[in-house]
Structures are given as structure tokens and as C-alpha cells.
Design brief:
- Helix content is 25%, strand content 20%.
- It has 383 residues and is α+β, with helices and mostly antiparallel strands.
- It folds into two domains: 66 residues, NE0471 N-terminal domain-like (2-Layer Sandwich), CATH 3.30.2020.30; 285 residues, 4-Layer Sandwich (Double-stranded beta-helix).
- The strands form four sheets. It has a six-stranded mixed β-sheet with strand order 4-5-13-8-15-6. The chain has a four-stranded antiparallel β-sheet with strand order 7-14-9-12.
- The chain is globular.
- It starts with 29 loop residues before the first strand and ends with a helix.
- Bound molecules: fe (ii) ion (FE2) and zinc ion.
- Fe (ii) ion (FE2) binds next to loops.
Length: 383
């Protein structure tokens, strides 16, 4: 009876449970069960004749397929060529300079989030570059931008105002951001608004560097699983401390230790079911001390972790795994920070970058609501 779907038990406006679970007698029994074409009608003993109706669809789903994120995505991994057909244009959101709204806008956001969910990233071309505002407005079509200790939406030219190497012009190896949060940002986006040679703009003739590096972490992890299943298991098993402490008065660390690779469990369901890659945390700069205490049999010793991590690092740096792309003013890149690692080559000159983070849950909610019908979502998520 706790799962009764009736309008007395579930508030139809908020879809929250109105029923007080603990008012249900502990020894409750079905006093009658009636099968209909659409589902089961159950009358309960010990109540004032409360009657519940459970559609077959509901019963089948929860009996056979009890998953919390059940929408299937066929993931497509990418290597050095990058994913195919993952480009949208600013005009898709602003045809003839008119901003789409309501369902029309949702359809385009559905395409954008659908591409990211499947391929891990998407580009939006022809975004205005005269200011950062159009980029911010585009991102906010997915969901609100996440604030962190670095701020919210950013628009900056490298200096060490914030103590993090992202704010310099040196090369950065492939990494995921926010390894130090309990809940790393789900999406990250950046848009290079301009790149000019210092001191006077002579950009077009010189190679200023700064190519962006993107690596499909799921693809790399699957290669590791194929080539060295034990190393893969070590990266799933050894839980590491992560932290962000470069700014005075701020020391961020997840509420518990997290491994480099996290897999979906039976209950999580999701795209590929149990064993499917779910999240990658990889930023050795923000990693703490590898725990000395393994599981005692040497399988998760620090030596085993370093050996496995070295193999993974080697795969991440393979020519056929690294996807290099030169970002140009006008192109906004949005990618799944739980899956895709990013980095860049060193550059000269002055770059103006803008971008931001979006929470994973808010991105997935938006994706779900722009790619599935209200009914499907209600059936699968709310129950
Ligand atoms: Fe980063
Ligand atoms: Zn009820």
C-alpha cells in the first residue's frame, strides 16, 4: 500500500507522497485482488477499505526492471577523430536572430543534451564573440550555472588571480575537473572568445598553440579493461583522497574517498546496466596521498594502484585516443565532465575564455525532460 498511486496517497500537483507510511498497519493484508485489463485492483485490510490500482506497466517495470535512471542511452565512444555529427549552430537556438522559447526551444536543447548524453560532448558554432553574454545565455538553456569557490560563469584572461593552473598558459594534461567535490560538475563548457598574439594582434599568421585536448574516459577505461582487467579493477577498487586547497581559507575534499573509475551497479541501471562506466575522476594534480592500507592481499596496495594508474595514463596519452581540436572564437564546447577528460597545449598570446559548470542532476533532468514524454518520466522516475 505504500506504493499506492491514488490521488489520496500521492499529491497530484507535487507528485509527492501524501500518505503517511507509518499510519499503514504493520500487519496489512490484501483483502481482495482483482485483475483487470489495465492492472491490479487491491483492497487493503485494516484500512477503511482503501483501494489501490497498480497499472501493469508500473508492476512490470518495478518487478523486473527496478532502476533509478532507466532511460537507455546507447553510448558511442570516440577516439582521435572525435565524435561524428555533434555540432549545432547558434541559429538553431536563434533562427533569424529570434530566440526560440517554450517547446521549440526544448526541442533544440533536447538535441544538444541528447548528443552530450550519447557522445560525451557537443559543439555550438556561430556563437557571438563580442561579449560573453550569449554564451552564458546558451548554457543557461540547459540549466543554471553552478557556483564554486572559483565563481560561477567566468570570463577571463589568464593571470594567477585564482591559484589554479587552469588560469595560466602552460600545457595541461587530460583531466576531469572537480575531482575534489563529492558531486563533480556534470557538464563543463568553454568558449574561446578571442586569441591574439601579444603584444599587438598578429594572430592570423602565427601558430599561437592552445589546441584543446579531449579524451573519452569511458573509451580509455574500456581499453584498459580489455588489455589488463586486473589494473581496471584496481582503479575501480582503490578509493583516493582528493582536495582543492590552493586558495587561502578554502580546503575542499569529498565527503568520502572516491576511486578513479566508478561503475554502475545492478541498482543504478542506466545505459549499459551493471558494469557500465559511470564516472571517471582523473586529475593527479588534485589527488591526495594514495592510501597505504590495501586490502591485505596486495591487490589494492599502493604499488598496485600506481602500476594501474600508470597504464591508464599511458592509454590516455595514446595518439589514437587523444582527440585534438583547435577551438575558434564562435565555437562553444560543452562536455560531460564525468566522462570526457580535457586538457590543452601550451599557448602564446592572450586568450579570453568564458564558460562554466552545470550540475549533473540538473543536466540529466533537462535531458530527460527534453528527450522523453512526461508520461514516460512519471512512470519511470516517480513510479
Ligand atoms: Fe580543467
Ligand atoms: Zn491510495
Amino acid at each position: 500500500m505504500d506504493n499506492c498511486r491514488c490521488s489520496f496517497c500521492i499529491n497530484q500537483d507535487t507528485m509527492q507522497k501524501d500518505l503517511d507510511t507509518f499510519e499503514i498497519p504493520q500487519d496489512i493484508q490484501a483483502s481482495s485482488v482483482e485483475e483487470t485489463a489495465d492492472g491490479l485492483k487491491i483492497r487493503w485490510s485494516g484500512t477503511d477499505g482503501h483501494e489501490s490500482f497498480y497499472p501493469w506497466d508500473f508492476l512490470n517495470f518495478y518487478l523486473e526492471n527496478d532502476r533509478r535512471q532507466p532511460e537507455a542511452v546507447r553510448l558511442e565512444n570516440f577516439g582521435s577523430d572525435g565524435p561524428k555529427s555533434v555540432r549545432l549552430s547558434y541559429e538553431d537556438f536563434y533562427p533569424g536572430h529570434n530566440e526560440l522559447r517554450g517547446e521549440e526551444a526544448d526541442r533544440v536543447v533536447g538535441r544538444l543534451t541528447g548528443l552530450i548524453a550519447r557522445h560525451g560532448l557537443a559543439f555550438i558554432d556561430n556563437v557571438p564573440t563580442s561579449s560573453a553574454e550569449p554564451t552564458q545565455k546558451l548554457l543557461e538553456k540547459i540549466a543554471f550555472i553552478r557556483e564554486t569557490h572559483y565563481g560561477g560563469f567566468y570570463d577571463f584572461i589568464p593571470d594567477l588571480a585564482m591559484a589554479d593552473t587552469a588560469y595560466t598558459n602552460i600545457a595541461l594534461p587530460a583531466h576531469t575537473d572537480n575531482t575534489y567535490f563529492s558531486d563533480p560538475a556534470g557538464l563543463q563548457a568553454f568558449h574561446m572568445l578571442s586569441h591574439t598574439g601579444a603584444p599587438e594582434g598578429s594572430a592570423s599568421t602565427v601558430d599561437l598553440g592552445g589546441q584543446s585536448l579531449l579524451v573519452d574516459g569511458f573509451h580509455a577505461a574500456e581499453i584498459l579493461r580489455r588489455e589488463d582487467a586486473e589494473a581496471f579493477e584496481v582503479l575501480c577498487a582503490v578509493k583516493l583522497p582528493w582536495h582543492a586547497s590552493g586558495n587561502r581559507g578554502i580546503t575542499i575534499a569529498p565527503h568520502k574517498r572516491y576511486p578513479v573509475l566508478e561503475l554502475a551497479s545492478e541498482e543504478d541501471g542506466g545505459s549499459g546496466g551493471a558494469g557500465q562506466l559511470h564516472r571517471v575522476r582523473w586529475n593527479t594534480a588534485d589527488r591526495g596521498v594514495v592510501p597505504f592500507s590495501g586490502d591485505g592481499d596486495g591487490k589494492t596496495s599502493p604499488e598496485a594502484w600506481y602500476a594501474a594508474a600508470r597504464k591508464f595514463d599511458g592509454i590516455l596519452r595514446r595518439k589514437d585516443v587523444e582527440y585534438w581540436v583547435q577551438l575558434k572564437p564562435g565555437t562553444l564546447l560543452v562536455f560531460d565532465n564525468w566522462r570526457v577528460l580535457h586538457g590543452r597545449a601550451a599557448f602564446t598570446g592572450v586568450r579570453r575564455m568564458c564558460g562554466g559548470y552545470i550540475n549533473r542532476d540538473d543536466y540529466i533532468s533537462r535531458w530527460r525532460n527534453t528527450n522523453f514524454s512526461r508520461q514516460e518520466i512519471m512512470d519511470r522516475i516517480v513510479g
